[in-house]
Amino acid sequence: MPTKLSKLADLNKIFPPIAVSSIVIATSCFYYYISYYDVEGNESCPRYIRVVFFILSWLNIVGGIPHWFLKPFGGLQRIAGIPGLDFKSAGGCFAMIGQAGDGIHKCFQAFLYIYINLFQTQFAYPLFIYKFIQNSAWHWTFNYYKPLPLLNGKTNLIEHAPARNEKFPHVIMPLLTIIYSYAIGDFQKYLLSSA
Fold first, then answer.
1. pLDDT of 8
2. Domain boundaries along the sequence of the chain
3. Which pTM does this prediction carry?
């Protein structure tokens, strides 16, 4: 159930369309840039991989900003509406620190990835593979190795969180891109040649 604060702001209904719109607009601008204004010789990575990598990076920014900037408990409280968050318990304090730190990490990592994707494309494909492995490890850990009962099943605390299904863009989309790149020979051409 959303908290009174998130109901008042109604951010769990407002944020997802804004996030999706920003992803579409930013990706369109990125694609336009790399199609028409990219530096000559900056094609050390295929465009389709660069576009998917950009989408993943922008998803990190869109997901990181609410956790970093919304007060008091960021996206956990204001968007997902998770009840029981307060400063009176150690768990609440660590939840605030953890999710704000996660937001900062996601944003700064995304800025680095976007820079590499724009100007150092020889590193884009290896980092794309690295990001896929990192995201896969995260989802495997919290879905199978350390499953959290309140995040799975009937008592799911994050049923209103926009990122509750983030494994699809963060794991499935890169996996399909890697399989496609392997099938057409780009895996060997761009990844193994950059080593």
1. 46
2. 4-192
3. 0.81
